[in-house]
Description:
- By secondary structure, this protein is mainly β.
- It has one domain (5-194).
- The protein is built from three helices and eight strands, in the order H-H-E-E-E-E-E-E-E-E-H.
- Strands 1, 2, 3, 4, 5, 6, 7 and 8 form an eight-stranded antiparallel β-sheet that branches.
- A hairpin with a 2-residue loop joins strand 1 (65-81) and strand 2 (84-96).
- The longest helix is centred in the N-terminal third of the chain and has 12 residues, at 5-16.
- Residues 1-44 have low confidence and may be disordered.
- Keywords: Signal.
- This is DUF4352 domain-containing protein.
Amino acid sequence: MTVSVSSRKYLSATLAKRRAGLATAVASVAIAAVGCSTPDPVPEGEYSRVAFYDSLEALRADSDAVVVGRVIDQEVADDVEPGFHFTLSDVEVMDADATSGLAAGDTIVVRQVGGADTPPLANLLGPENTYLLFLTLSGLDGRLATQFYPTGVVAGIYVAPGIDGDTVEPLTFTQFERDDADDLPTEITAREALGW
């Protein structure tokens, strides 16, 4: 399956509004059967990015928010272009960086390409894990403007599987999916990411 030209234009235009160095997810995507909670990489999916990261500082600088949270609900929507689906994850914030304006107990929406008949570009968030997320505002209009994309498609997603309770420290998070073009640590703590 090939991502349509209008979908490419949408993704490019939406994220190009952001500071230089933000990731865009545009390319052809082959159909892959990947569930929302699988940690296995999408074997045939492809995406292109306009930036790669060589440090947490660079990733943080391109992010509008850094949060620790867990998925409490998900839906698939084609609310930007009919037939082009996104998985929308409602993420309950457990902790956030001071500059984001977010706090524990807030709920945010994280958008990822994929769902229904649109193959995912990367592994999708799932409800069974606690995530450390570097996020970029969507740049969309109306009610969608407050939604987020993971910064750098995969670069901004770290995971701590199966955590019970609300304690985020001393959790260690590992990369959810690795892009070899990034030079980021494979493991980080909430303290390192949130700048406590």
